[in-house]
Amino acid sequence: MRVAVVGAGPAGVRAVEALVAAGLTPVWIDEAPDGGGRIYQRPPPGLLRDPGKLYGFEAGPATALHAALDALKPRTDWRPETLVWHLRPGAQRLSTLHRGRQAELAYDAAILCTGAMDRVIPIPGWTWPGVTTLGAAQIALKTQGCGIGRRVVFLGTGPLLWLVAYQYAKAGAQVAAVLDTTPFATKAMAAPGLLRGGTTFAKGLYYTAWLRARGVRIAEGITPLAIEGTAHGVTGVAWRDSAGRTHHVDCDATGMGWGLKPEAQLADLAAVPFRFDAQQHNWVPQRDAAGRTPVPGIYLAGDGAGIGGAEVAEIAGARAALALLEDSGHRVDAAQVTRLDARLARQARFRTALERAFPFPAALARAMADDTILCRCEGLRAGELRAAARAEAATGPAPEVNRAKAFTRVGMGRCQGRICGAAAAEILAAELGRDVAEVGRLRGQPPVKPIPIAPAAEAA
Amino acid sequence: MKLVRLRDDARPRIALTLEGARIEAQQGDTLLTALLAAGAGYLRESEFEDGPRAGFCLMGACQDCWVTVVGRGRVRACATLAEPGMEVSRG
């Protein structure tokens, strides 16, 4: 049986581990040179790889995952630095690109462990050089030993906001401020549920307390007003506090993000149906608790199947592989399945509390000023999308996001709506007076990332 | 945008060029790190005249950090390792 696993982060590694243990030799594809996913991404050769320094409290899981990854590579058809840019479910084929070379790969079953990226809300000034996502700020430090600036403001909400701020301060950067759009009271209300998460919650408290103890400026329940800057870069951030007063802080870089969203384009191309998960406030591909999708032969695990974090991804990766093995007539250890299912159920309860603690501030996206750049690829401003939504628009109304994309080019650029998609849907929904779930999601298109014309033509 | 080297910054030096001007970088730098730590300031101009860009996601997804390398064509600066002698231009 030809099994393909896409992704070598926490989910992909544990999925491959279970497949190899059952005697299979999967094709294992990852876009990065050395696997690990985003959370346990390793620096290029020649840079410091001390897990304690790079991953902090996660050094243990990171080291264990890297050891498993390295041990599994020779036991699979390992294909690093390879992008899966298309998936044809009917033909059961993947199209891949490795160093400019196109290849087609037939599969009988595939486990997609495609991970997640930062969820972003555009605010005025967010395209200046020196503004990055929170994930980017962390990657710069973790894999390049660099800060995105000398004096940095971290803005947004979620566990990553506090973790990255802590990591920067610890590495010797000046953290000018941590600006959380979630009020303290919202987080406090979720605390009882968060305690179920055990160490995850404790770590979050630790980062916050550590930053406070060092006198880092912290503001919660804020509304960001603008990232100030010039063509030379960021100069400061302005915000409004919960009492309506405006504030400003000088900085030369800003990391921002509001939680994560699944990188689910391949699941989309595989024709897996999606549903709007109100708790996560994300569109997620449909799957059962084990990772089976309604599409035969397609399994999903990790953050690409709905945000759950690295610990969940490891469990889900193993569980999806066992589902695949079960479905293809292999004998699986029933006790192991039960154990994994119980751990997934426990983690899901913690996740509910976490989402309540750091809700996506949809109102912030909906209130975006007309002249704020919404789609950074196409230079499209929020007002242009609002105009297209209206019934009196020359094109006729845009009742959902794909129509709006055709009319305005929102989400049509080089990132294919990864960055602006969530905010664009909120703006469109607000303009139409609808729930965000009703305006749909930007559909995935091949190639899922830009590729040169020649290999695409070769595959056609 | 100026990337600041906070640790692990005593690696062997390599030289490349940006728009013909010599840039010193360190082995293991991505092109994005090499250029922005050396003071390049930005990586490309937006096609829509809304200013310069210097990358955003650093994980190969946003495509905001495209630069052109002689012999390779257009690459994502965040996902491409800097190599000695690379001739890079913005956009």
Q: Which regions of chain A contain 5 or more consecutive residues with pLDDT less than 50?
A: none
Helix content of chain A: 25-40%
Low-confidence stretches of chain B: none
When the domains of chain B are counted, the total is 1
- The whole-angstrom Rg of chain B is 12 Å
Give the class of chain A from helix and strand content and strand pairing. Answer: alpha/beta
Q: What does the oligomeric state look like here?
A: heterodimer
Tell me about the biggest sheet of chain A? 5 strands, parallel
Widest sheet of chain A: strand order?
A: 3-2-1-7-21
Write the layout of secondary structure elements.
The complex is a heterodimer of chains A (460) and B (91).
Chain A: E1 3-6, H1 10-21, E2 27-29, H2 51-55, H3 59-72, E3 77-79, E4 82-88, E5 93-98, E6 101-106, E7 109-112, E8 116-118, E9 131-133, H4 134-144, E10 146-147, E11 151-157, H5 159-171, E12 174-180, H6 184-194, H7 199-213, E13 218-220, E14 223-230, E15 233-240, E16 246-250, E17 253-258, E18 260-262, H8 265-269, E19 274-277, E20 282-285, E21 298-300, H9 310-327, H10 334-357, H11 362-366, E22 373-375, E23 380-381, H12 382-389, H13 401-408, H14 421-432, H15 453-459
Parallel strand pairs in A: 1-2, 1-7, 2-3, 7-21, 9-17, 11-12, 11-17, 12-13
Antiparallel strand pairs in A: 4-5, 5-6, 8-18, 14-15, 15-16, 19-20, 22-23
Helix pairs in contact in A: 1-3, 1-9, 4-5, 5-7, 6-10, 9-10, 12-14
Chain B: E1 4-5, E2 13-18, E3 21-26, H1 31-37, E4 44-45, E5 52-53, E6 66-69, E7 73-76, E8 87-90
Parallel strand pairs in B: 2-8
Antiparallel strand pairs in B: 2-3, 4-5, 6-7, 6-8
